[in-house]
Amino acid sequence: MLSNTLLKCILSLGLAAATLMPVSAQEPPVRIGYAISRSGPFAAGAQTTQEPNYILWAEQVNAAGGLNVQGKRRKIELVGIDDRSDVETMMRSYEKLMGSDKVDLVLPPWGTGNNFAVMPLLAKHGYPVISPTATGRSLLEMKNQFFFPILQQPDRLMVALADMLAAQGVKTAAAIHVDEMFGLENTRALEEALKAKGIRLLENKSYPIGVKDLAPVLNELKAKNPDAFIGITYPPDTFLVTAQAKQVGFNPKVFYAAVGTSFPAYRDRMTPATVEGVMGIGSWNAKSNAASKAYFDAHVAKFQKEPDSWAGAHAWASLQILQKAIETAGLDRKKIRDYIANTEHDTLIGKVRFKDGENVSTPGMVMQWQRGSFEVVWPKDRATATAVVPKPEWK
């Protein structure tokens, strides 16, 4: 997880901005509500990938005069609630925001499970949401016309990983996965993708949210001597599995973890030398395009830390799309929904187009820590560096 000092810094900035955001005296503010994890096990992810971006976006828009709503500039007022990493608290918060508070718009909670849970409320109240931290075919199977997951879906992510492993000559793999919707959906996609490439999966073990010790499992996997380790992990587990793999000396040719690997705090807490060669999910870095560098610099200036290289960039892209939708459709939520669904969008992560709710434009990607930078190494047409395999020894 993030250090207590860093998390407190982020939270203090977030709470101040979310509650003290200036509003226009001439026009009523556009009230945008959300529930997000500021405490509990999901806080590390939420306070890295989502709420800081909400705050930075609102600050930038307000500094420029506000949102253009049918020719009038209106400031953004963020209404943020701590869901305490508890799904019932999250649900009650959104029911209040949309039902009794009747905010103009809402932004999504953090994580696949929370987004799945809130989807019926979005449909009930008619609030469109572009989610940067939800991925799973079951989300799309609900056919909720107001919900747009902008992250790559599990099959895209795991096919990209399997393609990269096959290109590196990997013949065997061992995996673990968090026993939650994200882990379950991605591990099913992983098994199919590895099988299609002829890569033998020697073991695939689940573990519960909040796990404190993965060393026994890692020792079991180490004894099987796989070419690759794959962790379908959430942020606290990504930190844990890295530290304990180093402790037990488990260092296969490829070491891959999921959510949290893209966090700058992962590199900083583990140390750049430790994470050198570790691979994970991502889709972007500051070298990807000119807009990326501008966003990167603004994020560092505001929060004194780098943005992450996966969901954070997708969060910013979702806000870019939402802003353009408001400029085009005003605050009519059905029209906003139609604009999102039927338009190709220019964003920080490139072109984005939704088909039946899915972002069909952004491919699955694999990234790797190299000399302190999280580099895109697959697919080759998106790469910012060449994959280094085998991974160096732990340091």
Characterise the protein shown here:
- There is one protein chain.
- The protein has helices at 4-20, 43-49, 51-63, 87-100, 112-125, 137-141, 154-167, 181-196, 215-224, 235-248, 264-270, 272-275, 290-303, 311-329, 333-342; strands at 30-36, 67-69, 72-74, 76-82, 105-106, 129-131, 147-149, 172-178, 200-207, 228-232, 254-257, 279-281, 345-347, 350-352, 354-355, 358-359, 366-370, 373-378.
- The chain has 395 residues and is an alpha/beta fold.
- It folds into two domains: 4-149 and 288-359, Rossmann fold (3-Layer(aba) Sandwich); 154-283 and 364-382, Rossmann fold, CATH 3.40.50.
- It has a seven-stranded mixed sheet with strand order 9-8-10-11-12-17-18, with helices on both faces. It has a three-stranded parallel sheet with strand order 4-1-5, sandwiched between helices. The chain has a two-stranded antiparallel ribbon with strand order 2-3.
- Helix 1 crosses helix 3 (51-63).
- The two termini are 20 Å apart.
- Residues 1-24 have low confidence and may be disordered.
What characteristics describe this protein?
single chain; 395 residues; alpha/beta; Rossmann fold; 2 domains; seven-stranded mixed sheet; three-stranded parallel sheet; 18 strands; globular; disordered N terminus
